[in-house]
Structures are given as C-alpha cells and as structure tokens.
C-alpha cells in the first residue's frame, strides 16, 4: 500500500476510535447495575459517514489543496475589509449604531429589549476584558471573579445597608478594581500562560468562597429580591416602598411593565457607552499606548524605561472595574444572583467575545457580543447543542481567522512594491 | 498519640490522590516542554478515559466476566487506546494548524476544544453521575486499633503500584529508547532537532499520545477508586494536575511526579484543617505561593527570555 492510502485508512480508523466508544455506546442503569447499550443506527451511520469522508479527504489531500490554491480568493475583497477596519469607518459605524440603539427599544418588543440588555452586559464585560487581553496581552481566565465581586457588592450593600443602585454602582466598580489590584499584584510578574491558570484559580476561589460563606452570601441559594434601579428616586415598580413615589404616578402614566424593561436597557446602553468612550480615550493616552507596546514586546518596553508591572497592573485593575460595573448592573437586572452565575464557562464566553471580535478592536467586541448572545437565542430549538457549537466555533475561529471578525487597525502607511 | 495516626492517614490519602495527579501532570509537562503550550483539553482526555473505563467494566459485567485482573487489564487497554486516539486527534485538529502563532491563540483553541469535548460527552452520555460498586473492597490496617489506626485500602495499593509502574516505564522510555531521545532533543531545540533529521511532527504527536495514555491510566485508577464519574470531572482534575506540573517545575518530568505528590498531600492536610469545601482553595493558594517565591517550580530550570 502506498503512503496516502495508509494515511487515509489510519484517519478513518481514528474516527472510529474517537467516536465509537463515546457516541456509539451508551451507559444506562438497569436497577443499580450499570449496563452498556449500543446507540441508534443513525448514530452509527453518522460515524461511518464521517470516517468515509475523512478517508476521502486524506486520500485526495493533494489535489484538493491544489484546487483550493487555484481559487485562492479571499472571502471579502481586501479593499472592502481594509475600509471596514479603518478607525474612521469604525467611528462612523459606531455613531450610527448608537443612534439606532437609543431609538429602537421604544418600538421593539419586550423580549427583544430584554435580550438586548443582556447583550449590552456582555458588551461591557467584553470591553473590560478587551483592555486586559486584547490591549495589554494578559490572558485573564478568571475575569468572571470580578464580575461576581461587582454583583455581590451591590447585592450585599443593598441587602444589609439598604443602599440604592446608583450609590452602589461606583462602590461596586471600586471594590472590583481593588480586588483586581490585590490579585494582580502578586501574579502579574508571571509569564503569560502561568498568569492564565492563576487567574483561573482565583476566579474559582472567589466562587468557592461565595458558595461556602453561607451566613453572609446566602451560600448556593444566593441573594434574592435585589432592588431594581430607580429613576432619580422614582421607583419603576407598580407600587413603591413607603414614602417613595413611582415613575408612573409622578408622570401621570398608566403602569406599564415595559417601562422598567426599557429603562434597564437604557441604563445598560449608557454604561456600555461610557465604557466604550472611556476606553477609547484611554487608548490615546500614554497608558493606552504603553499597554499595546507591552503586548507587542515586553523586553523593548523595559529597554525604553517603561515599568511593566505598573502598566499591567493598571490594565488589570481597570478591566476589573468595568467587570464590577457590569456585575452590579447584572445583579440589579436579575434581582437574584447565585454563585452558579459566575462559573468558568462565563469567563470563557467573555473571552470568546473578545477573541471573536478581534483582539483589541472595540467595534469588534460589540459585534461579537451581539453574535454570541443573539445566535443561541435565535436557535432555541438547538439549545442542547449551544455549548457544543460554541466550543467548536472557538477552535475553528482560531484555526481559520485568528485575527477575529473586525481586527483593530492603526492608522498606517503601506509601502507599495 | 492519636494525632500521629490521623496525620499518617491523611498522608496516605494524599499520596494516593497525588500519585494520580502526577500521572496527569506528566501530560501537561511533556507537551509544555516540547511546544511550550498548555494543553487545556488534557483534563477532558482524562474524563473520556474514565467513561471508557466505565463502559468496558459495565460491558464485561453484562457478558458475565467478573475476574478482577481481566477487568482491570481490559479497561486499561481500552482506555489507553481510545484516549491515545483522542490525544492524537486533538493535536491534529486544534493545535497543529496553530503552531508558531501567538501564544494566546493555541490556548484559546484549547479552551474551545475542552468545552467541545465536555459537551459532546454530556450530550451522548447524559450530564448525571454514573456509579459502580467498589471492585476491590477491604483494606490493610496498621496500628493498635480503635482510633489509632491507619487504613490503606487494597484499591489505594493498586493505585500506588500501577502509578509507580507507569512512571518507571515512562522514565525508561524517555531515557533509553530512540524515540525518547528524539523527544528530549525536541524539548531542547526543536529547530536543530528537525535539521538533524528528527521528524518533529511525529515527536509532538507522540508526546500528546503518551500524555493521553498516562491520563487514561489515572482515569481508570481514580474512577475505580471513587466509583463515580461525570462529564465535568475533567475540568477540576485537569486544573489540579496542571497545578502539580507548575509546582514541580513545568517541562520537567520528575518535577511533575514530585509536584503531584506534594499537591495531593497538601490538599489532604488542607482539607483536614480548613474543611473539605476549601480543598480547592488550598490547592490554588499553594500554586500562587510557589509561583511567587519560586516561579520556576521545585525542580524547574529558570527560563531565559531571549530577544
């Protein structure tokens, strides 16, 4: 047998070895004893089909490769993609999006506005993580920990001290930033991959503490009945607490639960826009330039007299602060938070948003957040397969388009050959 | 002194768990030593191994085979073959196309792979726990009796012995065989090894396969000892094993073995002092402390950053 045939046979066998034991056989209980049953014929057919396909793919790898090279046209013509990623285009795109975002909820359905609010929370989180991962190049896998700190600080302050959302928002941001500073201080001397694992560990530690400090945080049951934000002291509920006025009484409107949904959406939009604006400005300050310089080459940065620890720490702290804002808003929107809202998978989703958008690109983050949250909402009937596709998408994206949907572009000149 | 026996008991338990961490940690450390990336999906390979072990055990029980050595050999063999296939395929699909790109990119692809595998197994085998009764009940006990006793279960002895055999086999393979020498050469300098005619692609694939096979051994042992598996078990065990690898000095095989044992013992004592629910906090706390005071781990060599 010649080499391609052997390789192709090997690949086909590999498909069986990988797929058959896990998908072709199913564990089942018969009483208390464990039994194994074969899966349905269609599953076996699928495995067989996949192995045949891979067999052919490997057997004809060379002609296929030549074919692809022949029609090697990029998916988007370079001029269009170049235009789309220019900073000025991105700016105008943003202005148009913002105008649209402020207007549509007054015409949209309640469910759609609610989903949009969720998207905006992820936009905020993505923008915050984008500082850490996209700009400063520090892989933080425990970002959800700061999100949890923000959410729990609002929930606890409101629960124990009776503080409102607007007082707690800055406090939650500050507390999360403080956590970022405290955790960042020891770990930021570490190299990239170590940093990733240590932050992952920290995220888990925060969750373990939230789950086990039952007397303070309510343990696995979390905290419920968290107050919704007020509009300059006016509650948007049907009835206000004693002494306070409600929004619909004050303006002489009929009570409409949609008011609350739209109001929450507008707060989220405002917070996301503030985050977008602040980060956009920071990028043009020396500190923002330093973040990117550090991402590109740490040794060169040191040689130029930049202090890597301070720069990394600032990125880490700021990122954490945005997670804190997002977290306190999340708590206010849900009204109920439990430690299970802050698992590693949440960190992975936020990271996927940053990566999918194109690391460092702000418009990319917004776009990716919309794609990542909207797609699963639209594909409700496939909801079982949601995380499966999500994992596969992360791998495929890295293999095919590691620079993301809308990579960041600096103003630059190109030399023509 | 009753305390002495209590501590000895914790030591035994810690060493048992630690030796399986060490087996999994070797997978992390070998891959890191050769291509400098964290194989985040390694914990999922472990999980797949434990499912294969359960399927084999349940299948053989249905056929009426109850001889323990046969059950063990069959589950080891099947788990090793299947996870090796997984290790190879993961490398081929998710890492090989990304070789030589920015460090973050393979790591993110690895996280995606890990999420994919976890959910694939969950979809096909259900998200609940599967349990089997203890295959090898009974234990040795040492000490005068009553409270003053150290119990070592037969299963713990099996775990120890198999782990030691696997590690000895690996050490021999790496230090004596031709392929092992190629592995060491690649860890030293991949480009030079390639120039000298070593097929680096197959060496890298081999490291993934060896790591996966050792994870399968650990999976069979741990799932027989605890008797319970679920699709999410790989995440935490993988994280602990990675912690062990870092603890011992990532890239160093003896380091991974030592790190696993240290972590297992530290966890056992930590759980004893702070309560079982804070066991994981102890493990990560230890990781942070080691990285702070000795970033290269216990046996690691300092890495020189080159321009």
UniProtKB/TrEMBL annotation, chain A:
Keyword Cell membrane assigned: yes
Domain High-affinity branched-chain amino acid transport system permease LivHM N-terminal: 5-104
Signal peptide range: none
Subcellular localization, as worded in the UniProt entry: Cell inner membrane
Membrane topology: Multi-pass membrane protein
Transmembrane regions: 40-60, 89-107, 119-139, 146-163, 169-187, 194-210, 262-283, 304-329, 349-375, 387-403
This protein's record includes keyword Transport: no
Source superkingdom: Bacteria
Keywords: Cell membrane, Membrane, Transmembrane, Transmembrane helix
Ranges in coiled-coil conformation: none
Chief location bin: membrane
NCBIfam families: PRK11301.1
Protein name: High-affinity branched-chain amino acid ABC transporter permease LivM
Organism (species): Pseudomonas typographi
UniProtKB/TrEMBL annotation, chain B:
Short name of any one Pfam family annotated for the protein: BPD_transp_2
Membrane spanning stretches: 20-38, 45-65, 71-90, 102-121, 154-174, 195-222, 242-269, 281-300
InterPro entries in the record: ABC_transp_permease (IPR001851), BCAA_transport_permease (IPR052157)
Mode of membrane association: Multi-pass membrane protein
Record's subcellular location: Cell inner membrane
Main location: membrane
Alphabetically ordered keywords of this record: Amino-acid transport, Cell inner membrane, Cell membrane, Membrane, Transmembrane, Transmembrane helix, Transport
Family per record: Belongs to the binding-protein-dependent transport system permease family. LivHM subfamily.
Name of the protein in question: High-affinity branched-chain amino acid ABC transporter permease LivH
Organism: Pseudomonas typographi
